[in-house]
Design goal:
Length: 234
């Protein structure tokens, strides 16, 4: 069976200063980059909060840390990011959906400017439905920054997606959506909703729920529509 794979990292929080929330986020991301250089994968996806304060300099530092990555990199913004500055370092070909084998990964911008929590407006939800309907891929995975479910931890769910029911109303219209993944919560978790696998990616900087270490998610995508996730910790 032919398989494809991609790696998701999230919430690197690179800043002009090295220390962010008491950790060296630049060194931590560099360590993760060294880890994934030994892995066999097709695409790297970064699911938001690439920078801590959204400065152009922080994205330049981030891009330099990512220089050893030889695969295509796709990114989506988080609430800490500045989309204008982010777009200067990662062009529009990186801020988009991507095809990987018989799958398409659709990226969704869930950011509300000036707010920690996320939301999808009616236009975005309609666009998402259209993208899924028109996709040539056999299977679909969705990725956004904000969690669309309760994290069932000390995480404050009020900082998550404000209207998850609207997102799932779109998802429930299709039977080829196999997974939803996100970041933001700095937590490794896996859930299941009506046969759709739900994955929370841990942070490369630090975790919020008492999990120690830094990590990334490595997804294997099968031709039969199965998706598997292995979290690698450092």
């Amino acid at each position: 069976m032919m398989t494809k794979s991609f790696i998701q990292i999230s919430d690197s929080h690179i800043d002009d200063d090295k220390l962010v929330m008491g950790v060296d986020s630049q060194a931590n991301l560099g360590a993760i980059v060294n880890m994934i250089s030994d892995q066999n994968y097709d695409v790297l996806l970064i699911s938001g909060d690439l920078a801590h304060n959204g400065t152009l300099e922080s994205y330049q530092k981030l891009r330099k840390i990512l220089n050893p990555i030889e695969t295509k990199i796709y990114v989506l913004p988080g609430n800490h990011d500045d989309l204008s500055n982010l777009s200067q370092i990662f062009n529009q070909s990186s801020l988009c959906n991507f095809i990987i084998g018989c799958w398409e990964v659709i990226t969704i911008d869930s950011v509300q400017v000036g707010k920690v929590s996320g939301r999808l407006n009616d236009e975005q939800l309609h666009s998402l439905s259209q993208q899924i309907s028109s996709s040539s891929a056999k299977y679909i995975a969705l990725c956004l920054h904000h969690p669309p479910v309760s994290m069932q931890s000390d995480w404050d769910d009020e900082m998550s997606l404000e209207n998850p029911d609207d997102l799932f109303a779109v998802i429930d219209q299709f039977n080829n959506i196999k997974a939803v993944m996100w970041g933001h919560a700095h937590q490794c978790s896996e859930f299941n909703r009506n046969g759709v696998k739900l994955f929370s990616c841990p942070s490369t900087a630090l975790q919020f729920n008492g999990q120690s270490g830094i990590a990334y998610n490595h997804y294997t995508l099968n031709e039969d529509g199965e998706i598997y996730c292995k979290t690698h910790w450092l």
